# Entry
Amino acid sequence: MLKKIRKWLLYATASILILILFLLSGIFFNWFGVYQGPGKVLEFTNTSPLYEELSKERKNEVKKILFGDLHVHTTYSWDAYMLNLPIAQGEGAHPVSDACNFARICSNLDFFAVTDHAEWLTKREWKDSLKSIQECKKVTDDLDEPPIVPFLGWEWTQTSLDKDTHFGHKNIILKSTITEDIPPRPIAAVTKAFDGGVNSNTLITSAAVALDFPNRKQYFNWRYRSLIARSYEDCDMEKEISHSANCYEKAETASDLFKKLEKFDSDLLVIPHGSAWGVTSPPFSSWDVQLNPDSHNANFNKLLEIYSGHGNSEEYRSWTPMQKNNNETLSCSQPSQDYLPDCFQAGEIIKERCRVSAGSNEECNQRAEKARKLFIESDPFGLLTIPGYDPMEWKDSGQCKDCFLPAFDYRPKMSAQYALALTDFSTGTPIRFRYGFIGSSDNHQARPGTGYKENLRKLNTESRADLDNEIGRYLLNPRLLDPKLPLSQEIDTERDKVFMNSMPLQSERGSSFLYSGGLVAVHAALRNREEIWSALSNREVYATSGERILLWFNLINHPQSEPVPMGTETEMSFSPKFVVKAIGAQKQLPGCSSLDSEEISSEALERLCRGECFNPSNERKLISRIEVVRIRPQVYKDEPIDGLIQDPWKTFECKNSQEGCEIEFMDEQFEGGNREIIYYVRAVQEPSEAINASGLDCNRDENGKCLKINLCGDPKGKGKGDCLSLTEERAWSSPIFVKFKSNSP
# Structure
């Protein structure tokens, strides 16, 4: 009997081992994964009645205001695919067709662009992306004003740990959707460097399948996509690249990118975004690196995305995380009411751990100073010098405390205001950035325009780091398992090599700085490709934080023209006068409209929109104030920036009115200044609830010091809901650039 049991156990064990071996072999040789394709664009007759209604409201306006989203990822992007795996609390594949369907059905946009990362876009994905955009366009191609205008683009995802070679992320948007006009392949920033971090090897796939067996097909397909992406080699830059070549075309610097783009016979725009993100930008990153004849191309660089689901990059602040001493060494900046440097907090963490371990005050202070010094010496990997990463210990360090919905770990010298204040004097003619402002979502679930309702946090934002999901947290950040020692430690390159290809991850705190995303609005005579592209190219655009605020900003006393709109460059010899008009966004009704329900199946509404569509009421939110920002660009080399940015320069309180707010102002100081001045306005709306509006939501003492943070997704903090708090949504006009013109002969 015992022999039979042993024999049975032996057979059972062998069978299990054979099954495991079969599974591992199948994963290794990719027997199970398949290509999921671009999906299907739905056909229905919705003609966007909202903007017909707005046109009736503004009969006397020459141009309409149209809303779009020029920064959307599908699961053709490597990070979107990973974020949408079930083990990461995602829904699975969201192809390009979903972006079209969502923009038309759920968010009711006028235009959008798909901008997947070039680093994972093989020839097949690029071809299928174009096919889906063409199908999206074809659905209503016979109309003079189609309800949706789709654009194709891609993201050039460049980062560097060296501030002197960091150019940041840029979206390339193509005007045409005609196959012959489209480049044969997108241009990536890096390719083979992505092998380790985003590709699924046999072990990782097997672990994911074991942990989440019911969704095994998702992980098999992830493995399949990884193998295809990894099979591509870099194109040989020394030879002419054929259209049919299966390779990655690469541009490692902004200069290389522009040289390649100039060879395309296509109208296109290059739109930087996420410029002030600390998660991708080293601490001393600055726009200075990009303002030169090689790294800046004014023909392409006309727009800047200042707000997205990853936060606001508008505002400049004078603080820095570290200070450069006269002897070229670095020291940790002292904390202020508005900023707590990470390096300073590193010392506070070690000091507190030392105190808990019964260390003396003298010893703990010494350890704190050593920790700050080691943090700085290890820049930009200072976080790795504090053993046992605990997000709660870092409190609100590194953050802009008085910025509107800021990007995480804010970089002030990569802000829009800093960019506009700069001048390059390296050539005979001063070079300046001439950016118009846009907002977009940067959504990674193929959901353009997610800010129409502040709900469904895990779908409408990237904020998913629930702190009670220990498996997911530890997979993202193994440092959470390290012991919290009361001493800082030098970086061990062998031990920490997995973290040393990019900025150290802080997913738990960063999750409280992820929002529902912004929009770009254009002033256009008609809703069609030509008119929208013309507005984008002329910078007659503005950004919103997601709300569909209506905004006009014009220079009204120009001697040689009608009112000059936002985005214009002009010259004047006397003080300019401006008019601003803003109308608040329409309040939203729950669910979807009856028209949506008649046109689209309930299954499609639930799958795409989760039953919540853009569904405006007849009541509008109120505009509370108009703020004017004035920037005087540098007129000599190294002119201090701090005094050149006046924010706000003027503030106008608005009356409570459904008709909005209209004000006029003049710059009486313009003539005496004898220099160019840049003006733009913010229309600020009455407070309303928004996802993650309170950021880290600190409990503070009477002096404003953060005692404890309450993270989004923490059951002991904000919980697992939508993490709603009050904020003042806003719209940012594009600037008007006014040069001083002397009347003297």
